[in-house]
Structure formats: structure tokens, C-alpha cells
């Protein structure tokens, strides 16, 4: 994983520390009541720890994506196999479409799809058609500043959206109650709501307090080594 793609200027990840942080992350999910299935390391793909990008798992079907980053395309082989144990309905995004599911934010049965350098319009429209086939809906959101949609925005259920930067003023999110993450803590906009608790990255006290003031218990996990590869809390798991 130390050779993963990055735009951050934070140096190479420390592998041992990353393993340690990964174990803490798994424990946090378990503490929130989840059963965690841990996949084998896929040593051919340095970014494969960011499993979120390779599949969208809905209540009715799984969609195996086609990552926009070419070096990540082969990650889907192992993910497809793992997902097949839980889903009988498996759909796929086809060329020239690209989708990375870090660009997808679920709000009930609606899915916001970020159009980014990794997710293109063809991929997004394939995905919207697939969602509709199963009685769900999707819509696109243009991104200008961040890697993935969920780099800058997280749905915390109960109509609450945690947002930073460009997402604070997007019309698409006007109907939600917005929790605004300050620019100097922008990394903390990627949090995950799990069974009522919000797992937050360690080291961002203002955002942690903001979430707690909105009524959520929080659990802080240090993911500094994954941040060095532009990855966050949501990227490290597929939650279904
Ligand atoms: C990448 O650039 O693809 C990885 N280094 C980071 C992916 C992060 N995933 C996510 O935000 N869902």
C-alpha cells in the first residue's frame, strides 16, 4: 500500500503503523455492532485497501464499478468474488463508463454520484439506470476541488450532512441540515455513521465537537497513514 496513488504531500505511509491503524479501524466497526469480513491483501494493487471504490452495495443489488484510475481496474476481480458470497444480483459498470464508489453518497434509496476525475458521465448514467431497475434513484453532482464526492461530504442520517468547501453551497444539499467543517479540518469531512455512532478521524477536534453537538456519539480513529494516500475512513470498508 505504500506505493498507492497520492496527491497529498505528506510522505510515504509507514506500513507497520498502517497495519496497526487498520486493526483499530476494524475494531471500531465491530464496537459499533458490525460483523467485519476481512479480505486477503491483494499485493498486486497498492490501492486495494480502499475497497469502497470498487463496489456499490445496495439493499437489492451489488454494482461492481470500473475505477477511473487505470492502475486500480484489476482490483475488481477479488472484490467481485467476495461480494458474490452475499449478493445474487450483481451488476457491472462497462467501458467507456468509469465509476469509483467513493463518489457515491447514499441517502435512503437515493444515491448522489459525484462527477470527478474518476467517475465520468457515462458511468454515472449507467449507474442511475441500474439503480432505477431496482426501484432506487440517482443524480449527479459536479465536483471541482476534491478527489471523490465523499472526500468532502458525508451523510450522517436524520437529514444531517457533514460538508466542507465546495459542498457547503451546492444546491443539491440545500434541503439538508448542514454541519459545516472548517477548511483547516477539511480531511474530517470524511466520517462514517455506523449504527448511530459517527466514526471520525483522530486529530480534528472542532469537527468532532460539531458532530457531538448535533447529538451523535463519536469514536475517533487515527488513519494518518491512509490520509497520505488521499484515503479516509469511508474508503477502507464496504458497509452493507
Ligand atoms: C486513490 O487515489 O485511488 C487512492 N490512493 C485513494 C482512494 C480513496 N478512496 C476514497 O476516497 N473512496
Walk me through the structure.
- With 240 residues, the protein is of the alpha/beta class.
- It folds into two domains: 13-34 and 152-235, L-arginine/glycine Amidinotransferase, Chain A; 44-146, 5-stranded Propeller (L-arginine/glycine Amidinotransferase, Chain A).
- It has six helices and twelve strands.
- It has a three-stranded mixed β-sheet, covered by helices on one side. A three-stranded mixed β-sheet has the order 4-5-6, with helices on one face. A three-stranded mixed β-sheet has the order 7-8-9.
- The model has no long low-confidence stretch (mean pLDDT 97).
- Bound molecules: citrulline.
- Citrulline is lined by residues 4-6, 47, 50, 52-53, 69, 72, 102, 147-148, 151, 229-232, 234-235.
- Citrulline binds at residues 4-6, 47, 50, 52-53, 69, 72, 102, 147-148, 151, 229-232, 234-235.
How many structural domains does the protein architecture include? Answer: 2
What value does the Rg take, in angstroms? 17 Å
Low-pLDDT segments, ≥5 res: none
- In the CATH hierarchy, the architecture of the largest domain is 5-stranded Propeller
| Tally of DSSP helical segments | 6
- End-to-end span in angstroms? 24 Å
Could you give the order of strands across the largest sheet?
A: 1-2-3
Fraction of residues in β-strands: 15-25%
Major sheet attributes: 3 strands, mixed
Write the layout of secondary structure elements.
Elements (H helix, E strand, L loop, with lengths): L14 H17 L23 E3 L4 E3 L10 H10 L5 E3 L11 E4 L2 E6 L5 H13 L3 E6 L6 H4 E3 L4 E4 L13 E4 L11 E3 L2 E5 L3 H9 L4 E4 L2 H4 L13
Parallel strand pairs: 2-3, 5-6, 8-9, 11-12
Antiparallel strand pairs: 1-2, 4-5, 7-8, 10-11
The structure holds citrulline (CIR).
Citrulline (CIR) binds next to loops.
Amino acid at each position: 500500500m505504500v506505493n498507492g496513488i497520492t496527491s497529498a504531500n505528506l510522505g510515504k505511509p509507514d506500513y507497520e503503523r498502517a497495519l496497526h491503524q487498520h486493526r483499530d479501524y476494524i475494531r471500531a466497526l465491530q464496537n459499533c455492532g458490525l460483523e467485519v469480513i476481512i479480505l486477503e491483501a491483494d499485493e498486486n494493487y497498492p490501492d486495494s485497501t480502499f475497497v469502497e471504490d470498487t463496489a456499490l452495495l445496495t439493499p437489492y443489488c451489488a454494482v461492481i464499478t470500473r475505477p477511473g484510475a487505470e492502475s486500480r481496474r484489476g482490483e475488481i476481480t477479488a472484490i467481485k468474488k467476495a461480494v458474490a458470497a452475499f449478493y445474487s444480483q450483481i451488476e457491472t459498470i462497462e467501458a467507456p463508463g468509469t465509476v469509483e464508489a467513493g463518489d457515491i453518497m447514499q441517502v435512503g434509496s437515493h444515491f448522489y454520484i459525484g462527477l470527478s476525475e474518476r467517475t465520468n458521465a457515462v458511468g454515472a448514467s449507467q449507474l442511475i439506470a441500474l439503480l432505477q431497475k431496482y426501484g432506487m434513484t440517482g443524480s449527479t453532482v459536479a465536483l471541482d476541488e476534491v478527489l471523490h464526492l465523499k472526500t468532502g461530504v458525508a451523510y450522517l442520517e436524520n437529514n444531517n450532512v457533514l460538508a466542507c468547501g465546495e459542498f457547503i453551497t451546492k444546491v443539491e444539499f440545500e434541503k439538508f441540515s448542514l454541519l459545516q467543517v472548517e477548511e483547516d479540518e477539511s480531511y474530517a469531512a470524511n466520517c462514517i455513521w455506523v449504527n448511530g455512532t459517527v466514526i471520525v478521524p483522530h486529530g480534528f477536534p472542532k469537527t468532532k465537537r460539531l458532530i457531538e453537538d448535533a447529538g451523535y456519539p463519536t469514536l475517533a480513529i487515527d488513519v494518518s497513514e491512509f490520509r497520505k494516500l488521499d484515503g479516509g475512513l469511508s474508503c477502507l470498508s464496504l458497509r452493507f
